[in-house]
Automatic annotation (TrEMBL):
It comes from the Bacteria. This is XdhC- CoxI domain-containing protein. PANTHER family: ALDEHYDE OXIDOREDUCTASE MOLYBDENUM COFACTOR ASSEMBLY PROTEIN (PTHR30388), MOLYBDENUM COFACTOR INSERTION CHAPERONE PAOD (PTHR30388:SF4). It comes from Methylobacterium indicum. Pfam families: XdhC_CoxI. Signal peptide: none annotated. Residues 15-82 form the XdhC- CoxI domain. InterPro entries: MoCofactor_Util/Proc, XdhC_CoxI.
Length: 107
C-alpha cells in the first residue's frame, strides 16, 4: 500500500528535524498515460532512504539519484521522462506516458 501524502510529508519533516538532508520530488505534469497523478510525492534522504512514489521502474531510480545532488547543492531541478510505446513498460510508464517531476531540498 502506498503511503498517503500526509504520511509522506510528515515523514519528510521528521527526517529533516532529525538532521537528515531531505529532498521532495513531486509530479508536476503528465501527458498521456502515467502511473501516478500530478501531486504525487516521493521523499528521499541523504542516505538513499525513500518513501512514496512518482512513477515506478527506472524513473523512480533516476529521481532518487538526482535527489542526492539536490540535497548536496540545494538547487531544485525539473526532470522530464518520456518513452515510446514499445519501451514504456520497461521504465515504468505505461502506453508512452510522459511526466515532469520537480525535485527540491526540504529546508
Amino acid at each position: 500500500m502506498l503511503s498517503t501524502d500526509t504520511d509522506i510529508l510528515a515523514t519528510a519533516e521528521a527526517w529533516r528535524d532529525a538532521g537528515r538532508g531531505v529532498a521532495l520530488a513531486t509530479v508536476i505534469e503528465t501527458w498521456g498515460s502515467a502511473p501516478r497523478p500530478v501531486g504525487s510525492h516521493l521523499i528521499i534522504d541523504q542516505e538513499g532512504n525513500f518513501l512514496g512514489s512518482v512513477s515506478g521502474g527506472c524513473v523512480e531510480g533516476a529521481v532518487i539519484a538526482e535527489a542526492a545532488d539536490v540535497i548536496e547543492d540545494g538547487q531544485p531541478r525539473v526532470l522530464e521522462f518520456g518513452v515510446a510505446d514499445e519501451t514504456a513498460w520497461r521504465v515504468g510508464l505505461s502506453c508512452g506516458g510522459r511526466i515532469r517531476v520537480l525535485v527540491e531540498a526540504v529546508a
